[in-house]
Amino acid sequence: MVVQSFPRPLSSPESLLVPKAQPNPTESLTFWQDALAWRGAVMAKVLPRTALFGVYACFVSLLHLWSPWEGADPVHLGYAGGFFALLLTLRTSTGYERWWEARKLWGGIVNQSRSLAISAVEYGPRDRVWRQQFVRWSAVFCHAARQTLTGEDDAEALTRVLGDPPAARELLAARHMPSRVVGRLARLLRQAREQGGLDGFDLLVIDRERAALIEHIGSCERILRTALPRVHSIKLRRFIFLYLLGLPLALETSQVWVTPLITMLVAYLLFAIDQIGHELENPFDTGRASHLPLRAICSAIEADLMTLLADDERAGV
User: Fold this and answer.
1) How many Å separate Cα 42 from the centre of its chain?
2) Is 20 within a domain?
3) What are 277-297's pLDDT values in tens digits?
4) 299 pLDDT tier (thresholds 50, 70, 90)
5) What is the pLDDT of residue 29?
6) Domain contains 37
7) How many Å apart are CA 249 and CA 64, to the nearest integer?
8) What was the pLDDT predicted at 50?
9) Which of 56, 83, 121, 283 has the most neighbouring CB atoms within 10 Å?
10) Number of domains in the chain
11) Which range (24-28, 201-205, 236-240) has the least confidence?
């Protein structure tokens, strides 16, 4: 049975095709590109703090020349360094786990979006308009999810995929865009079942893929809205602060420049590792270093699904 009640899109799928997905452009190629990189590094964020402790160490070094004192045993500094290494490793590994979990969830969105569209094309009604609508709404889910997680308003991407400016504006105004998209897909499946003769078993298969999308975005929102325990961050940074305050006092040298140099080197290492853990806590914040390349992922999903739709139309189904 052919369904005739679906609104027709404004543009053809061929007009929506984007270039084939490329590897992550921020991935380094050589040792020197990483060693000398500025973009994507945390250096700019930790240099002011490092310089501040360097100035403090200069003051302590000058004070030591005026009134010498005996420095601390280097063994004690080593004990403290090992303690900080454990705490910073815990913080960094916890942040990386959140980042990696988010990346796996978006890998699931990629797979589920493709599987959902393929299942709809293969098992759904033969009606061309229904297939266009279903694939387009499947493709727009990733953009809706991306904007929900990053707080962006990208009406152009929604309009480009849906081919329907009023529908794109309505989606952009929704309180939770991914739920609106999944709800629209559910209505299309219901119409296909009632009017298009979609088999009940095939409906269950396709609907399972649809439900998986909302599970993935829910897990991403859990990462976004659940911060790491603040007590750990407070204690760690307080220990770093006290350690760097005491380090110039513990160093004993007759060279004025040695104490500031060592203090700034240690401060840079501690601040950089701490900042890396902070950057990894929220993988969806585009203002943080090494955030997930969600735009590139969405472009890949869009390209795959629009190609699927274009191939389906060329087949004359």
Assistant:
1) 17
2) no
3) 888 889 999 888 788 999 999
4) very high
5) 64
6) no
7) 8
8) 93
9) 283
10) 1
11) 24-28
Domain extent, residue 101, equals: 44-314
Q: Dihedrals φ, ψ of 305, to 5°?
A: -75, -35
pLDDT per position as a tens digit, 108-125: 999 999 999 999 888 888
76 vs 73: CA distance, rounded Å: 6
CA distances from 199 to 2, 57, 94, 204, 317 (A): 14, 75, 46, 9, 18
Q: Would you say residue 15 has pLDDT above 60?
A: no
Q: Are 145 and 220 in contact (CB under 8 A)?
A: yes
Spatial separation of the C-alpha atoms in residues 70 and 58, rounded to whole Å: 17
Assigned domain for 12 exists: no
Enter the pTM of the model: 0.82
The Cα–Cα gap between 317 and 138 comes to: 19
Inside any domain, residue 265: yes
pLDDT greater than 80 at residue 8: no
Q: What is the pLDDT at residue 7?
A: 43
| Residues in Cβ contact with 76 at an 8 Å cutoff, skipping those fewer than 6 apart | 250
